[in-house]
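User: Run a structure prediction on this.
Assistant: Running it now.
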Amino acid sequence: MELGRVEGTVVSTAKTSRLKGYKLLLVNLIGPDASPGTNHVVAVDAVGAGEGEVVIVVRGSSARQVDDLSTIPTDTSIVAIVDSIEYRGKTVFRKSS
């Protein structure tokens, strides 16, 4: 599992029929201190995440083991929206209410 921040949406009208109905999000993988990284991935959203949210993503075969995604051709899935991150004894991220 990896941490990431949703930075945008990817729109694709021409795609495999198995991806229809799923939101594709552009995620910037971040460090444990919530600092932005330089690696971006496109992820299938399984939890209803939105732009600016910190999320947990899984990649590889684990990405297809999420709920109804077992038949979806994906390498990266969003599996959780993060409420807070505590790193080295300090809260480095807290989702605003």
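The domain at 2-94 is CATH 2.40.50.220 (OB fold (Dihydrolipoamide Acetyltransferase, E2P)).
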